[in-house]
Design brief:
With 441 residues, the protein is of the alpha+beta class. 32% of the residues lie in helices and 30% in strands. The strands form four sheets. Strands 4, 5, 6, 7, 8, 9 and 10 form a seven-stranded mixed beta sheet that branches. It has a six-stranded mixed beta sheet with strand order 2-18-17-11-15-14. A five-stranded antiparallel beta sheet has the order 1-3-16-12-13, covered by helices on one side. Residues 1-6 and 43-48 have low confidence and may be disordered.
């Protein structure tokens, strides 16, 4: 995707939360990096320039979308609602996805430009959507990629809806497609009904830095698609990267987004000069996100201190152009013999470590439940209830209560429910990586 900046774009700031004190011999330094974008066109409600965004909607039209008929009808209505939400000047297209991908509107390998006429034309074309055929999601993404690459828009985004599993394509083909599309456009993915695969849909969204969710009832698709498109229309800066520079001898253990959802970025590093690497964060509007950075420093004696890492938010430049620095923060390490100082855990670090454990406990508990491991499922989901309660994650606690009977939330004592609706289990699984923020005084 191209670099994108404009006068009314949001202003970025970086705050670093950490306990910089280490005991003698201590090496691992943890920090929560809070990135905030504010004051852009979304916040000031000024007009955003035409031509800055391009969106492709990918609608599952496989045979299963007709069972029940409400799914196909809901998909048409949701796509029409999303089209109505497009800002004038936005480039867009609609794809019908089966075991092949077909252009529904405007066709001929191009994108339309949103205005009253093209919106009406697209909605008219939607009336011709019908179900039939298989599911090969990689073909949908490849067609979307080709259409978006023909656009000069900075914000390039896909919205993908499916109701089934990717049964007509080898998993390796989908993985290769996601690898190829990563960095070229972002994508939100939705599963409608309960016959799709959670790991497949969330994997698509995570690979393309988008959101994933379940819409169990097709009647709620239009509302969800409208919210998604409003979010896309609020994006103002594309291709933002979190650049991490470390001194000689410092090793990066991991870089993870921890709010508003969990996303491991460690393996997505691209080199950006001596001892520096960029981690993609996608497109931004007026919003705030948080990242957990862990680095391992060389051993040192009491009284020594060092810069452990420099975190910089950047817009990477073209081939021979320098990056644009948006904001910066520092991660420090100080060695001390003060036991209280060196053993204190920063509140933000502790909170998000707990949120990561919560997601892992849910996923492992649900997997154990599927395998018939009652003891393992009870232990893991009980720990999840305990963590959700202690962190104030009320939404996750509510979802857990549909899978287990909570005896004591504080102690994590639960009983597995004998019967659990597929939609409730899939909702808990899909949303397990959504986090709550630290309650700051």
């Amino acid at each position: 995707m191209a670099n994108f900046a404009k006068p009314n774009a949001p202003r970025f700031s970086v705050e670093v939360y950490q306990n910089e004190f280490l005991p003698e011999g201590g090496r691992d330094v943890h920090a929560i990096v809070t990135v905030t974008a504010a004051g852009g066109a979304t916040a000031t409600r000024t007009a955003v320039a035409d031509g800055t965004a391009a969106v492709v909607l990918m609608v599952d039209c496989s045979g299963s979308m007709e069972y029940p008929p409400e799914k196909m009808r809901g998909a048409r209505e949701a796509t029409a609602a999303a089209i109505d939400t497009l800002r004038d000047g936005t480039a867009f297209a609609v794809i019908a996805g089966t075991h092949v991908a077909k252009e529904v509107y405007p066709g001929q390998g191009r994108l339309a430009v949103a205005d009253a006429t093209t919106r009406d034309g697209a909605k008219e074309a939607l009336r011709g959507l019908s179900s039939g055929g298989g599911t090969a999601i990689g073909t949908w993404l490849r067609l979307a990629d080709g259409l978006l690459r023909g656009s000069t828009a900075a914000i390039r985004h896909g919205i993908l809806l499916t109701d089934g599993r990717n049964e007509h394509e080898e998993p390796a083909v989908l993985r290769a497609t996601l690898d190829a599309c990563a960095g070229r456009f972002t994508c939100d993915a939705r599963g409608v009904g309960t016959d799709w695969d959670v790991k497949e849909v969330t994997g698509i969204a995570h690979a393309l830095l988008g959101s994933a969710d379940i819409v169990a009832d097709p009647a709620h698709l239009a509302e969800d698609f409208t919210r998604m498109m409003e979010n896309v229309m609020g994006k103002e800066v594309a291709d933002v990267a979190l650049r991490l520079w470390t001194p000689v001898g410092v090793e990066i253990q991991y870089v993870k987004q921890v709010a508003p959802s969990l996303l491991d970025l460690t393996d997505r590093r691209t080199e950006a000069g001596p001892r520096a690497g960029d981690y993609p964060t996608g497109s931004w509007g007026d919003e705030s996100r948080e990242y957990h950075v862990c680095v391992r420093v060389p051993t040192a004696t009491v009284g020594q201190e060092m810069l452990a890492a420099r975190t910089t938010l950047v817009l990477p430049g073209a081939a021979d152009e320098p990056a644009t620095v948006l904001a910066q923060g520092l991660v420090r390490a100080v060695w001390t013999d003060d036991l209280a100082a060196s053993t204190a855990i920063n509140a933000q670090v502790a909170h998000y470590t707990g949120q990561a454990e919560l997601a892992e406990a849910i996923q492992q508990g649900l997997e154990a439940r599927k395998m018939g491991d009652v003891g393992g499922a009870t232990a893991k989901l009980g720990r999840a209830v305990q963590l959700a309660s202690s962190s104030g994650n009320a939404d996750t606690a509510r979802l857990l209560s549909k899978v287990v009977d909570v005896v004591d939330a504080v102690a994590g004592t639960v009983r597995l429910k004998a019967k659990v609706a597929d939609a409730d289990e899939m909702t808990l699984d899909t949303r397990s990586t959504q986090t709550v923020r630290v309650k700051k005084s």
